[in-house]
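Translate structure to sequence.
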């Protein structure tokens, strides 16, 4: 008999299970970067469920088991994960990684994702990006951009498009999973007080060599103006 699995929460079930007090992933000792990342990756989508079940070549079964049985399954089953379960995962990451402070310090979500996806589970990179003719592979994309006065309450679509434009980036291919980290903020400075989630993302203009229509005549475009 294989490991138990619970499907991601959808629609009314998501509201019923995840809404209210004592719901979500309990925070403790600077865990918010990991709590938010895990909730986003697993609560309502199955796109990364291979992380929980696939026997990848380099996969650490212990970490995979903790992630599946102590965090993702309880989250989907009852909508709540104890801080002690996340600490169990953080202790394992500290043992496996080169960094000794996963149990007490605040980290960048990208550092956590790179460690768990690349070094511990051995997953191939999810994104292929091109900038200035150079290709790079990564597991997630962090939005970098200067403060823009015309964006007061932006949506994710606007932020991704402007960030790609300012960094001269294109997607080499349609990604199987597109993990996007919003612009960071701390206690002193917030770039945006709110960001509206885009429930769908149109990546047509972000794809390298993708056929697009001319905005003047409607035929297939031969030139692109940034």
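Result:
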């Amino acid at each position: 008999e294989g490991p138990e699995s619970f499907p991601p929460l959808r629609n009314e079930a998501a509201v019923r299970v995840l809404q209210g007090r004592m719901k979500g992933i309990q925070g403790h000792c600077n865990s918010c970067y990991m709590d938010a990342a895990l909730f986003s990756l697993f609560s309502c989508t199955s796109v990364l469920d291979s992380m929980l079940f696939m026997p990848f070549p380099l996969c650490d079964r212990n970490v995979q088991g903790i992630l599946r049985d102590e965090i993702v399954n309880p989250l989907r089953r009852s909508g709540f994960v104890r801080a002690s379960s996340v600490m169990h995962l953080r202790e394992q990451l500290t043992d496996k990684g080169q960094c000794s402070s996963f149990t007490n310090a605040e980290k960048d979500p990208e550092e956590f994702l790179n460690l768990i996806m690349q070094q511990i589970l051995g997953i191939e990179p999810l994104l292929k990006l091109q900038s200035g003719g150079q290709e790079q592979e990564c597991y997630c994309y962090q939005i970098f951009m200067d403060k823009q006065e015309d964006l007061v309450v932006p949506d994710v679509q606007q932020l991704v498009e402007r960030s790609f434009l300012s960094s001269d980036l294109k997607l080499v291919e349609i990604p199987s999973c597109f993990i996007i980290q919003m612009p960071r903020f701390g206690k002193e400075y917030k770039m945006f007080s709110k960001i509206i989630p885009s429930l769908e993302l149109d990546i047509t203009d972000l794809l390298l060599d993708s056929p697009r229509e001319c905005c003047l005549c409607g035929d297939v475009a031969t030139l692109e103006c940034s």
